[in-house]
Amino acid sequence: xxxxxxxxxxxxxxxxxxxxxxxxxxxxxxxxxxxxxxxxxxxxxxxxxxxxxxxxxxxxxxxxxxxxxxxxxxxxxxxxxxxxxxxxxxxxxxxxxxxxxxxxxxxxxxxxxxxxxxxxxxxxxxxxxxxxxxxxxxxxxxxxxxxxxxxxxxxxxxxxxxxxxxxxxxxxxxxxxxxxxxxxxxxxxxxxxxxxxxxxxxxxxxxxxxxxxxxxxxxxxxxxxxxxxxxxxxxxxxxxxxxxxxxxxxxxxxxxxxxxxxxxxxxxxxxxxxxxxxxxxxxxxxxxxxxxxxxxxxxxxxxxxxxx
Length: 308
Hints:
The structure is a single chain. By secondary structure, the protein is α/β, with parallel strands linked by helices. It folds into two domains: 135 residues, Rossmann fold (3-Layer(aba) Sandwich); 162 residues, Beta-Lactamase. It contains ten helices and 13 strands. Strands 10-9-8-13-12-11 form a six-stranded antiparallel beta sheet. It has a five-stranded parallel beta sheet with strand order 2-1-3-6-7, sandwiched between helices. The protein has a two-stranded antiparallel ribbon with strand order 4-5. Helix 7 runs antiparallel to helix 10. The termini are far apart.
């Protein structure tokens, strides 16, 4: 990485990771730096890019396709793993039809042909545009978001007597894991609403602010031992204001397979969760889901009887 480029990027709020071979990287970083509101950090390999994604807080990744230890698709997969909210620009002469676009799922990717006469002049503009578009999107949504919201609506939570049961459950979770806060939250269209919360007075959080927006996209329990070390969340003012340091979240999955909420244990200090503890948290999430399903079944049965 160029020292000068790193120092320049550190003075700017919008840092762009540029990935290309050694012969072309300087031209790419120069195009990004010329945009004025952007600053470049650079890598010339997939491995180097992956390491920087772990260490740096970046707002976009500009990557070539051909790299010495892989391809731009490997870089985009690393983005999806380490910073899925960060958009990418694939800057390559390889035509789109020769690229496996299935690898783009769950990330925002723009394509720019580097063989165009004004490609380098346009690169800064395209990068800024994809950053702004990403900010407007705000957060990642599952591909089946409409179906998921339909499933959630079917529970009609306001009509279910679940408050006391969920409060007892969050008390138990907090005690079991010895954490400061445990909550049960439903992930609605634009926010997460908390049905019960031990150790905190959480009403709701926007989906841009809550970690559960990311956790719900994972099949397994998501654990962040120290948020300060995670580029996705270490600049989240809401989490900082709440003093949250560690997070563990398990999916509440409805019988039709849709994830409608999360059961979470969070703490004000760094926390590790081993495989057994992760399995236990998932058990608590399944218990919460069973309570919802039981209450829904009883309500539906009463409705059917009343309709006879």
